[in-house]
């Protein structure tokens, strides 16, 4: 295992805290304590908490889309992809390491005055996420004649189902919402 440099340690600690507790609920002092550094060191690498928040979103986007890409590569069908994705989520939830969608959770907790700082980044993540899901749908769709518009609508449906289940799970801690997501994804796979 390679040793993380100071910037990576800060981002790693902040990512864990932002994801589990929320961006707004995590203070700079908590991040500093978590990675055992001094405040000037944090501000040397990230000019503000908002800059650290943007780096967190980049980090989580790369991680999240990377997972979807790897699951798609391994899947033999759309049903396999959805089953593997929901199984991964369920395992993380049972291990108390799943706190919902990192992007939806982040966005929903932002105070109004901070929204303009993160709005364009969150829109870009949505665009990349939809493109990734469209790619998965095209690769695994049994109905090759589906149009790009059909794939786009279906990708948006997948996003809405995921966000709904993830948000309800974060709110309640009830694994049943993950099971419901799996069932809805199974219906999508059957239609395609």
Gist?
The chain is mainly alpha-helical and 192 residues long. Helix content is 78%, strand content 0%.
End-to-end separation in angstroms reads: 42 Å
Describe the main β-sheet briefly.
Answer: none
The proportion of residues forming helix, as a percent range, comes to over 70%
Write down the overall mean pLDDT: 93
Basic shape: elongated
Please, how many helices?
9
Q: Structural class, judged by helices and strands?
A: mainly alpha
Low-confidence stretches: none
Strand content: under 5%
Counted beta strands: 0
What is the CA-based Rg, rounded? 18 Å
Instruction: Give the SSE order as H and E letters.
Output: HHHHHHHHH
